[in-house]
Specification:
six-stranded parallel β-sheet; 16 strands
Length: 405
């Protein structure tokens, strides 16, 4: 079967490589049909590349090739990826993608377009890179009511936090190391401010609960305010700080979804996930907690997930898979600050007596070099709005959520 690849960057070139080097395995998975790359779309030139004859700068070469049945979109961004994908689906071609931004913003429209035209829109690689999570959630856990999801969804921030925790490296030095190692972009904003994780939360929430969630509905906080002092205090209580995307079921018409630093206690499956690895914990009412762990990005891990979707689309070229979600609403994702109760870590300039007079049940934390006028403590469960009311008049340095995963 002829296929095409749009975008020949890290992931796109990996897709072509996996198709080339795993042809025997692919034939077994499709029942004997191989995948043959007919076109590679990219505006750049790649002189000397072994696939140089396949390159095109004209999208219509793919759109008008009736033999191409499956297209991999690894361009990134919303446009022109959305326009190209829409035209391909309307033309009866299945599309698979690793483009989390596109799925988070336009997934509902593209799934509906695929449904209308009897083709498939698949995106296993859009969350967790090489970690299988989309298919297990939609198929293997289909008998469960999902109660919640918590995920370490960004390798760059997890690498930075690991260096802060294990090597006593401050944030700016850890970020520079991540950039030097190629884990962080020159402009790391999407990673360190939580935007990348937010997009993945949208996809997981939409899939878990059947209604589309948009990025502007997910409260998002990054890791730029995390300091070595916070790391030290939390270490004293056998905990670590992770950037988590969290989704919580409230009712069929309400969920909470947010991205933020969170305290994870040792003993949690998420606490030992270090460096650039990702992990996604899904809590079902029948199965309990299951955790999916592995490389969350990278050329070949992500490409393997894209090619797996291409194989799946090739096997279903004459039929539509039952897959996707419906429309959400503006009030579907609630303000978690007023709805969800949890403990909090608080660091402040204050005396213990002041804190004891404000909170009824707290655990104080300690660290080496702790100033006499600084306190850190863990609260009991309350909403964030209630916490902020209690903290009025207190010189707060930092507040971090405490997760129960």
């Amino acid at each position: 079967m002829k296929v095409a690849v749009m975008g020949y960057g890290t992931v796109g070139s990996g897709v072509v490589e996996v198709i080339d080097t795993h042809s025997d395995i692919i034939k077994k998975r499709t029942g004997g049909d191989s995948l043959e790359v007919a076109h590679i779309l990219d505006l750049r030139d790649f002189p000397g590349d072994s696939h140089e004859a396949l390159f095109t700068k004209d999208f219509n070469d793919i759109l008008n090739d009736e033999e191409v049945k499956v297209v991999a979109e690894t361009m990134g961004g919303v446009e022109p990826a959305f326009t190209f994908t829409s035209k391909l689906l309307a033309a009866g071609k299945s599309v698979v993608t690793s483009n989390k931004e596109l799925v988070a913003q336009k997934g509902l429209e593209l799934l509906e377009l695929a449904e209308e035209n009897g083709v498939n829109y698949l995106f296993e690689a859009s969350v967790g890179g090489g970690i299988p999570i989309i298919r297990p959630m939609s198929q293997c856990l289909a008998a469960n009511n999902i109660e919640g999801v918590a995920g370490i969804l960004n390798g760059t921030t997890n690498f930075i936090l690991t260096k802060m925790i294990e090597d006593d490296m401050d944030f700016s030095d850890a970020l520079k190391l991540a950039q030097d190692n190629g884990y962080a972009e020159k402009d790391p904003t999407a990673d360190i401010e939580g935007f990348d994780a937010c997009r993945k939360v949208c996809i997981l929430a939409s899939l878990a609960f059947g209604k589309h969630v948009y990025p502007n509905q997910v409260a998002t906080e990054g890791i730029t305010n995390i300091t070595l002092e916070d790391v030290s205090y939390i270490h004293s209580m056998n905990g670590v700080i992770k950037l988590l995307g969290q989704i919580k079921y409230i009712s069929d018409d309400k969920i909470a979804a947010f991205v933020s630093p969170a305290v994870v206690w040792h003993g949690s499956q998420l606490a030992s996930v270090n460096d650039v690895f990702n992990a996604i914990l899904v809590r079902g009412d029948a199965v309990g907690d299951v955790c999916f762990y592995g490389p969350g990005a990278g050329k070949l891990p992500t490409a393997s997930a894209v090619v797996a979707d291409m194989v799946d689309a090739a096997k279903h070229v004459e039929r539509k898979k039952i897959f996707g979600w419906g429309a959400g609403s503006e009030d579907y994702v609630v303000d978690y600050k007023s709805e969800i109760e949890m403990p909090f870590y608080v660091r402040a300039k204050a005396q213990e007596s002041k804190i004891k007079g404000t909170f009824t049940a707290i655990r104080f934390l300690n660290r080496i070099g702790q100033p006499s006028d600084e306190v850190a403590f863990i609260t009991d469960k309350m909403t964030e709005n209630k916490l902020m009311q209690k903290l009025e008049g207190i010189d707060v340095i930092n507040v971090i959520k405490v997760t129960n995963y």
